[in-house]
Amino acid sequence: MRNNLKIGVIGTGGVGGYYGSQLQKQGFDVHYLLNSDFEYVKTHGLKVLSPNGDYSFNNVNAYQSVHEMPKCDILILALKTTSNHLLSELLPPALKDDGFVFALQNGIGIEQQIAQIVGPNRVIGGLCFICSIKKGPGVIEHQDYGWMSVGDYRENNYISGLTDRIKMIAEMFDGTGIPIDLMEDLTLARWQKLIFNIPFNGLSVVLGANTKQLTSHPDIRELAWQLMLEVGITAKSSVNRVISEDFMQDILHKTTVMQPFDPSMKQDHDANRPLEIEAIHGQVVRHAKAAGIQVPKIETLYQQLKFINDDS
Length: 312
Known about the structure:
With 312 residues, this protein is an alpha/beta fold. It is built from 12 helices and 10 strands.
């Protein structure tokens, strides 16, 4: 399988760079689309710092344009959703006719948007629980965790079951040490990821705090819990998915014990980049309104984030 597949990475940041490099380390033919650090990576290669062991590649298949990339069997999409207006330009030129997109993006409605471009049978989704950042040109710093939940996309929130494509993804990452949870229900997995993203991405920006600071303050920890509960209520009312309180408690515990970390939205805010508000908080607010339920804490957080984003 390693000799036959071409893997493309669209968005070589902390997430795309880490998972793509892990596949390259396993012997896969990986091709990276880069932006600001293209020249550096083309000349000096890619380095990954990790508590599991540092590694680097001197020779990297680096590109500045998708039109220069070979047609790929799998495109790992790890761009910020704030760039998704570019997908119709980025995906078709780099994807084989029988290839598929592996979307590693935050939020709701991701696969639906991609399916409108490449077709509904050519998309799978992955939800990453990882602390990883681009530390500098050509340098990825993996700080903690790394597991993925992977599911196949079906229209209208239908359950796909465990398909051959997602089993293939698990096989590809076998040997990396990255735990892969195969999900029969991608819709459920996406809403479960919001249990972390809604409270901790949002509050980290509004309060200017990392995960350790947020979980260590009793009032903010309780606020995070209430935000989680509102996500659960919305999932049940809008897409008929149940997220147990045990799952929420597990996410809260994992966030409490992880290394102090600035969630991706805070990293974007600190770097004066646009925030992924609409794909995460905005989508939940819109789902809640469509279902006729109230999520006052999420809506307040959404309004605060929009003010911060518009003001920056």
